[in-house]
Each structure stands twice: as C-alpha cells, then as structure tokens.
Amino acid sequence: MTTPDSSPRASAGPLVAILSGAGISTDSGIPDYRGPGGVWTRDPDAEKLVTYDHYMNDPEIRRRSWAMRRDTGVLTAEPNAAHLAVAELERSGVPVRVITQNVDGLHQKAGMPDRKVLELHGSLRSVVCTRCHARRPMPEVLARLDAGEADPACAGCGGVLKPATVMFGERLDPEVLGQALAVAKACEVFVAVGTSLQVHPAAGLAGVAADHGARLVVVNAEETPYDELADEVVREPIGTALPRLLRELRERREQRG
Fold this sequence. Notes:
Layout: E1 16-20, H1 39-42, H2 52-57, H3 59-72, H4 81-91, E2 96-100, H5 106-110, E3 117-119, E4 122-129, E5 135-137, H6 138-146, E6 161-165, H7 174-186, E7 189-193, H8 204-211, E8 215-219, E9 232-234, H9 238-256
Parallel strand pairs: 1-2, 1-7, 2-3, 7-8, 8-9
Antiparallel strand pairs: 4-5, 4-6
Helix pairs in contact: 4-9, 7-8
C-alpha cells in the first residue's frame, strides 16, 4: 500500500499546498454537497446515508447508501481541467501536496502520485469490513449489487461492509491529519479550492497555513469564513481560474530562477 509522503520539504524549492473540496469535481459531473444545488441542500435526509450510526444500525439506510454509490457514477468520472492543472504543476518540478476532502480519487486519476495526495475523508475506490477490517475494491462490491445483493456483507466474516470513507460520526485518520498539518505549516502557498471551509478540522488548515506565513488563496463560488484572512479570493469558475492561477505561479517561480 502506498503511503503519503510525510516529509513535505523533501523536494527542492518552496512547497505549494492544494486543499480541494467538492467544488473542484463538479465539472467532472460529481455534485457538491453544501452549495445551492448540493446533494444535502436539496435533500437534508441524505446525510443519514453517510452517518455512521444510521448506516450501521439501519439496513434500509445501508441499502439506500449502496444504491447511491452505484448510481452516482463517481468511479467512472474523469478528471477535469482543474485536476489536470494540479498534476501538471507537480510534473513541472514544483513541490506540490494535495490535501483533499474528496473521496473520488480524481487527483490521482489526473496524474498526481498517490504519496502526494492526502485523502482526509478516505476513498470511495475501496470498501472496508467494519468487523475484520479487510479491504476490497469498490467495483467488486458494486458488481454484487448488480447481481442482486442490496446490502452486501463481508465475504470473509459476514460483517457489515462500508465504503472506505470517513462518515459523519467517525474520526479522521490521525496520521493523515498529522501529515496535512505538517504540509500546512511548511508550505509557501496554500490554495483552498472548491471548499466551503466550514468542515473542521480540514477548514482550519487554511488558518494554520496563514499563521505560518503562507500566501493564502481561496478559489470558491461562495463566501468562506477564511476570505478575510486570504491574500487573494477568486470567485471565477474553478475550471478556468485554477489552471490560470497555477500557471501564473509556475511562471513566477521560473522567473525567480
């Protein structure tokens, strides 16, 4: 299993940190959650599908949750211009670390190395047994749904399976969070893109970065609690704004030599 790089200054040159939220993936056809047309804005009851206690204690919630996973099309989504711009910046030689609140794996699909992506909320690319903790690929379980299993159990021990994501009511992985904090403290530039900066502790990373001297850039359609702290706030569409910002950042570094 590939683990994230815990030494953010291992590469030459000042570090760029990208904190990405659901808004970066909407151009890939994945709806956000808290925006005006977000999943939970339209249907607040849908939060139960990703709340640990509801999921574990209510078979009907599990059936609805699995059906949602099957129907959202996240696993077949493709990276958009914003994901590709982040990967291009990394390939250009600029030290980049991605801290993402997303579970869609699109940063890696765009070309970011696994070890340089910190998935704060886990990954939808695999499932985990809540009893024996065995992991299996998500497509394998979705195939069981297609075969007629509405609430597939662990094939090894019969335990309850869940996506390998952090549900409401679960703690973030302390190791991943610790690495994210180290990146926030070490970076020269911290770009928060497509995130409402309302969900903690992820949102607090923006403040940590600013407190440690990073240039803070917020790219988001709606206002965030950290806009006043930011050096730059961009309201333009992410698919055009982020590639432009990262291209300008790379060009400035090249001019500095």
